[in-house]
TrEMBL record:
Source organism per UniProt: Paenibacillus spongiae
Residues the record marks as site: Cleavage: A198, T199
Entry coiled-coil feature ranges: none
Active site as annotated: T199 (nucleophile)
Catalytic activity: N(2)-acetyl-L-ornithine + L-glutamate = N-acetyl-L-glutamate + L-ornithine; L-glutamate + acetyl-CoA = N-acetyl-L-glutamate + CoA + H(+)
UniProt cross-references to InterPro entries, sorted A to Z: Arg_biosynth_ArgJ, ArgJ-like_dom_sf, ArgJ_beta_C
Main location: cytoplasm
Family: Belongs to the ArgJ family.
GO molecular function: L-glutamate N-acetyltransferase activity, acting on acetyl-L-ornithine as donor
Protein name: Arginine biosynthesis bifunctional protein ArgJ
Length: 412
């Protein structure tokens, strides 16, 4: 098992959502999807875990979000999260709400924990009622599938996918008080991904001891730097949710901002969430490339974030990247419409190492070299405003013919 050391954390390539102490997971096919892919999964903690959540900003919020908010607010503790794919249980009225509560209650009973310590998440088609006979049948079988193994974590990852082509997971270890603490994450997301949300669905487990208020504050801060800095298509879903659970079984003293190892833990959490966020952007529906926009020299970090989001979300920029067209004019146009203070005389733009603009003036560059660079599977756009110390990075993908094909036939 190879491991790579990064900053204050150690990357664990073969870690999973079950690596932190106290966590089991699993997944199975209950019949919500037309294929035989898993469509029901769960994460369970052997002790009440400190919990935090970040949710979609969409006005139309799916029934599971109401249930999960209620569970976490009840005491800030969770024992489990139950997740289905293939059906969003969104815009389904009182019946959908009742179904979400029934999922919570039945799974709580199946694993022997209080109902208000179970979170619920759903993803899939909007506006259709869940086939509850299939869900409840799956819930009866699910406890036997739960395990603290990598394969069980993989089953969970597979159970939460919809149009995703690949599972998305990350894991690191961090030394806190001389003890090894693990932080792991799993997510899904491919379409309806846009800044100012959590993610389509995301789950973080850790065995660190940390209070609910501290975890909630840190999760929000990390989300703003990772999941809120990606976009695939400009649409924010009704079901976006990020839930974190901390078992406290690593044995460290409780983490607060005053703890000497707080920065190391925050670093590790940010790394996990950034890996997941970039995986979602790379796996955008129909995408062929991961696009990264780095903005420097803005008047503030917030301003840099707004500009980076505007560039990464531009359909014209995304289309140019897909076509391997070094059309830097689309980039500068996006910068100029972001609504942020920018000196129109001092902007530099690079595509990778290829300079296309300096001090807001075009620079002659090798078109063939730019073509070859843009044909790669990762494209980095650098924008330097020379106007301050603000900086931000956003991630997205190219806009392809397949994106239209996939979404034109999503329900069929």
């Amino acid at each position: 098992m190879g491991q790579g050391t990064k900053s204050s954390y150690t990357v664990m390539p073969e870690g999973s959502i079950t690596t932190p102490k106290g966590f089991k997971a699993g997944g199975l096919h209950c019949g919500l999807k037309k294929t035989t892919r898993h469509d029901l999964g769960a994460i369970v903690c052997e002790v009440p875990a400190t919990a935090a959540g970040v949710y979609t900003t969409n006005v139309f919020q799916a029934a599971p979000i109401k249930v999960t908010r209620e569970s976490i607010q009840a005491g800030g503790l969770l024992r489990a999260v139950i997740v289905n794919s293939g059906n969003a249980n969104a815009c389904t009225g009182k019946q959908g709400e009742a179904d979400a509560y029934e999922m919570r209650g039945n799974f709580a009973e199946a694993i022997g924990v209080p109902a208000d310590q179970v979170a619920v998440a759903s993803t899939g088609v909007i506006g259709e009622l869940l086939k509850m006979d299939r869900v409840l049948g799956g819930i009866k079988e699910l406890p036997a599938r739960l395990a603290a193994t990598y394969d069980a974590g993989d089953d969970f990852c597979q159970a939460i996918l919809t149009t995703d082509l690949t599972k998305k997971e990350a894991c690191v270890s961090v030394t806190i008080d001389g003890k090894t603490v693990h932080i792991a994450g799993a997510s899904k997301g491919s379409g309806m991904i846009h800044p100012n949300m959590a993610t389509m669905l995301g789950f973080v487990t850790t065995d660190a001891a940390i209070g609910g208020e501290a975890l909630q504050q840190l999760l929000r801060q990390v989300t703003d730097l990772t999941f809120n800095m990606i976009t695939v298509d400009g649409d924010t879903s009704t079901n976006d949710m990020l839930v974190a659970m901390a078992s406290g079984l690593a044995g460290n003293s409780e983490l607060t901002q005053a703890h000497p190892d707080w920065a190391a833990f925050a670093d590790g959490l940010r790394y996990v969430c950034e890996v997941l966020a970039k995986a979602i952007a790379r796996d955008g529906e129909g995408a062929t490339k991961l696009v990264e926009v780095q903005v420097r020299g803005a008047v503030s970090d917030d301003s840099a974030q707004a500009i980076a989001k505007t560039v990464i979300g531009s359909s014209l920029v995304k289309s140019a990247v897909f076509g391997a067209d070094a059309n830097w004019g689309r980039i500068i146009a996006a910068v100029g419409r972001a609504g942020q203070p920018v000196n129109p005389e001092t902007v530099d733009i690079r595509l990778g190492e290829i300079v296309t603009m300096e001090q807001s003036r075009p620079v002659g560059f090798d078109e063939d070299a730019a073509l070859e660079y843009l044909k790669g599977d990762t494209v980095v756009i650098h924008v330097d405003l020379h106007g301050g110390e603000g900086a931000a990075t956003a991630w997205g993908c190219d806009l392809t013919y397949d994106y239209v094909r996939i979404n034109a036939a999503y329900r069929t």
